[in-house]
Q: What sequence folds into this?
């Protein structure tokens, strides 16, 4: 997904999620917010946990990341 950084530059992020078939049926091309855990190596990669749709619905991203209490999400 393309994300604007603090300087307004577009950065392409890789978001790890579950199988694509289920995600495609729920809205390809929408502007969404993804919650997840940023890669430790500093690359624009994250393990997605939740997808927030424009209409307020939340989708479980089916990733393997456990939701740790107090963990930083991006």
A:
């Amino acid at each position: 997904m393309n994300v604007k950084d603090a300087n307004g530059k577009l950065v392409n992020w890789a978001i790890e999620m579950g199988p694509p078939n289920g995600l495609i049926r729920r809205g390809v091309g929408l502007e969404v917010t993804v919650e997840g855990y940023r890669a430790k190596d500093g690359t624009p990669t994250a393990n997605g946990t939740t997808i927030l749709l424009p209409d307020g619905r939340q989708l479980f991203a089916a990733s393997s990341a456990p939701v740790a209490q107090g963990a930083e999400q991006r």
About this structure: The beta strands are 2-4, 10-12, 14-16, 33-38, 45-52, 58-60. The longest strand covers residues 45-52. Residues 68-74 have pLDDT under 50 and may be disordered. Residues 14-60 form one domain.
